[in-house]
Amino acid sequence: MANLQYAGEYLIEVCEIYSTSGLALDVTDLFASVNFYEDIMKNSLTGEITFVDTNNLLTNLPIIGQEKLKLKLVTPNEGDNDARDVAINFTETPLYIYKVDAMTGVNENTIAYSLSFTTPEAIRGNRIRVSQSFAGEPTEDVIKKVLRDEELLNSKKEFYYELTANNYKFVAPNMRPFEFINAVSRRCLSRDYNFAPT
What we know:
Elements: E1 11-18, E2 24-26, E3 31-37, E4 46-53, H1 57-60, E5 68-74, E6 88-107, E7 110-118, H2 120-125, E8 130-134, H3 139-148, E9 170-175, H4 177-185
Helix pairs in contact: 3-4
């Protein structure tokens, strides 16, 4: 790989769209740009990817807003050894396209458009509810159950947390999983930092 030539430079290793019918399409050649939006106050990552299309992909695939997006971006650097470790890699847990927007005609045969995407947990979290009680467990264990349970979020991603000092009884009265996690996290106190609430 080459050295960085400008700030924000990246290489696209994988950019594939999987339609609802199971058709896989490599769109690396149509790729124009990608933006990721991450917020400490939001539960999931969102973003948008822009394509310049000469094959009328929106109609021919078709893209309706329920497709999976496999994406892998790597920052160019001198050594190949750790390049794979610092990649933005959504090949094992693909992103979900939820909106087609910002279509612009570039010329007679070319259309530029953006697809909005988010993580599978965000999509799943809007469809299901948590209706159960949790008693006398550390808060991180309660949240881990909601994240890992196959009936709930079913997330396979790494879970980073701080140990908590509280063992409350929590009741989730038909709440969305992320609403429940946010409500529980507001009551947490740190075990290692003098019961600090932040």
